[in-house]
Amino acid sequence: MIRSRHVSDVVLTGTVDIPVPPTRLMADWERDISSRLALEPGDVESLSLPRARVRWPDYKHCVQAASGWTRTLGLQDVLTTSDTALMTCRGAKYHHDGEQYGGAAFCNLFLSEDRGLDLHFPATGHRIPLVRGTAVIFDTGQPHAVIDRHSTGFNAGDFPPERDCTQVFLTWELPIENAHVAQTLNVAFDTDPLTALQMIEEQVWRNGARLSAHGLHEDSPGSAKEKSTLTSST
User: Fold this and answer.
1) What is the pLDDT of residues 116-174, one digit of tens each?
2) Mind listing the pLDDT tens digit for each residue in 56-84?
3) Fewer Cβ close by (within 10 Å): the C or N end of the chain?
4) What are the extents of the domains in the chain?
């Protein structure tokens, strides 16, 4: 059981060859996004993966491509045994996911075409253009956002209603305690056991204070560079 660990600053990225999702499936996603989810700029929501798989004969090829890429990184077959979800976003505000997924790293595979958006990690300086086949692995406690390619940070005005800027992606929860995942991301455990003993839920700490899930200001994404991060959980 994880008591405490540091948040990795390793961000791994690559591009894999995946087929274009079927037109019928993409139309289904668009209806769901516009009618049920009604995404606002910065929102990240889930889509139904079981329903999508019915209309997605190439789903297995996407999984094989992502799994093949992770194996080249030394992660063996951890992806194929990890929990999977289908997500969509209309940009994403600066946030971390450590309070909900502190025991995992994310592996995301982007399915949409290039919409002129980047995945930005302000604390590490990584800025990754999102195109169909972009694959990324990162620590859930690492602050990140999806922003316009020509912006320095997240701005809701960059996502007007008339702009086609939604991204759909698969995400896997890679268990951080898996030896291959921990080694690849250089995760150190039991870094603050005294603080962890006082916790009853997962939390991310930075410079001796708890960092909220949206602890980064939209207008100052670079602020995270000044501080280190720590995830603690009982």
Assistant:
1) 999 999 999 999 999 999 999 999 999 999 999 999 999 999 999 999 999 999 999 99
2) 999 999 999 999 999 999 999 999 999 99
3) N
4) 9-184, 188-232
- What integer pLDDT is reported at residue 196 of this predicted model? 84
| CA–CA distance, 135 with 151 (Å, rounded to integer) | 22
Q: How many residues does the chain have?
A: 234
For residues 65 and 111, what is the distance between their CA atoms, to the nearest angstrom? 12
State the Cα–Cα distance between residues 229 and 227, nearest whole angstrom. 7
How many CA atoms are closer than 13 Å to the CA of 71, on its beta-carbon side?
10
Domain 9-184 class in CATH: mainly beta
Model confidence, pTM: 0.91
166, two tokens: 């939604």
3-class secondary structure, 111: coil
* Distance, first Cα to last Cα, the chain: 7
∠ CA 119-58-52 to the nearest 5 degrees? 75
